[in-house]
Amino acid sequence: MRRFVELERSAPGIHRVKRVVMAAKPPMGSLLVAAPAGKTDAELLQSVIVGDRWMSADRLDNAPVERRGRVPIGLREILWSGHVFNLGGYAKANREVLLRVRNSVKVQLSQDDLKDMDRFVDPTVTAILRTLKGEQVSMDAPLLRFYTPKIEMERRYRICWTMMETQRIHHDFVNRLNLYYDEAWIPTPWYCQVFRDSGVKIPLHPMPLGVNTQVFRPMDGGQFPSCELVTTPNAGRFERPHGFTFFTVFQPTFRKNTPFLAEAFEAAFASDPDAALVLGTTAHGTWANAEVKRQVREKARNARIYVLSGDFLEQDLARFYNASQAFVAASMGEGWNLPMCEAGACGKPVIVPRNTSHLDLVDDSCGFPYDMDGTATVPGSERICGWYDQMPFSRLGKNAKEGLVAAMRTVKGSYQAALDRGARFMDRLRRDYTWDRSADRVLDRMAKLWG
User: Fold this and answer.
1) What is the pLDDT of residue 68?
2) pLDDT (tens digit per residue) in 77-89
């Protein structure tokens, strides 16, 4: 057994010891930190951590008032923390915003990747990011962490730019924000309110993400590579998808709701040989694709559904979006839904649930949102993410299925009208949700902090 202390935040960069705990190791997601050797429990309970330095609470309390809880904020410098070298949405967003912000301010990158996957990143971008890792900002530079909240003990102003996919935010996620950060940035106003209602006390600021409109744009000549057909009597055949094609891109987890999408597509197009659905799975490992195919075959037999798997570069994705006629999703929750925005930037009609971040991005004037059937927890979701444990997701049931079927049929049956909505969504993205606009928002907020 080892000694740990549970901390509570009393001011920016200052944490007081709340209690002493004996444990073999900290529970997953706990707010416990190892207790220093050589101090009794009584001494620990009278201690504070200022930045990463331990001192007695009396020493801090007797310091001049103007020196307590004050965190100087360095001018025009940022210590940036997060993933940069993988294919996930966080890494893509970090890269895109970093490349723009570093043109205006000095940035030091604290890379959070477990391993580099820079073979998927442009070599020029990789070289820039590695240069940023070698930069040195002052101890007064604010920390901007663009990922999930972790224990941050440095005595500097700390910002967490983060998101979640549930209808309520897990108490541990909330506690980490309240304890270790001075403010949080959330991509959409709807989710800002969810974070507030879940108990986040620090200031929250809507900070939308973006899309690269130089890569994702309408183009002629896009086509799919050979994909595996997993339904119909020809299941197992590899061919280029043809006809009126719906496309979606996802990591194959329960949240993306592949069985529901397959069931709805079967209901909509089982007797329509012209319609096809391509499931683009950014999965690592054959087991994930096998599971996706099993789920599809349980729900669909006659409608044409393909699986396209692999590691897709942005240029690949842009080609796939342009090869399709529409984007469709059946997610139980999204913090932003970057694939939807990328498809929309290519001018494609988007069909998405009327839930979570979609509520701030897509309405009936520029897309095809369909209604939910309330909320529900998902047994076993904590195995994917500990912060999903007992948290409600959107529930897609009978009403959602009817709405999705109707939306897909409407898009296919009245495609010119659907393209008109797609054009309005594309205009909205190009006006309000580019990576340039995201970087401008970051710099505007930082300018207010720098004063």
Assistant:
1) 46
2) 999 999 998 778 8
For residues 13 and 67, give the distance between their C-alpha atoms in angstroms, rounded to a whole number.
Answer: 12
Using alpha carbons, list the distances in angstroms from residue 434 to 121, 210, 262, 368.
19, 4, 32, 21
The two beta strands, 244-250 and 275-281, are parallel
CB under 8 Å to 286, separation ≥6 — which residues?
none
3-state helix, strand, coil in the chain (%, to 5): 35, 20, 40
> Under a CB-based contact definition with an 8 Å cutoff, are residues 300 and 263 in contact?
yes
How many whole angstroms separate alpha carbon 41 and alpha carbon 81?
A: 34
- pLDDT value for 154: 73
Question: How far are the Cα atoms of 207, 234, 273, 405 from residue 269, in angstroms, in the given order?
Answer: 39, 16, 8, 9
End-to-end Cα separation, the chain, in angstroms:
48
Q: Are 366 and 428 in contact (CB under 8 A)?
A: yes
Q: How many residues does the chain have?
A: 451
pLDDT at 232: 97
Interatomic CA distance for residues 184 and 203, integer angstroms = 6
Using alpha carbons, select from 274, 21, 46, 9 the residue that is nearest to residue 151. 9
Specify the 3-state DSSP secondary structure of 416.
Answer: helix
Instruction: Report if pTM > 0.85.
Output: yes
> Whose CA is closest to 21, among 48, 43, 2, 40?
2
The Cα–Cα gap between 138 and 135 comes to 10
Nearest to 93 by CA among 41, 145, 48: 145
Hey, what are 371's tokens? 């209604």
Q: Which residues of the chain have pLDDT under 50?
A: 65-68
Tokens linked to 179: 């304890």
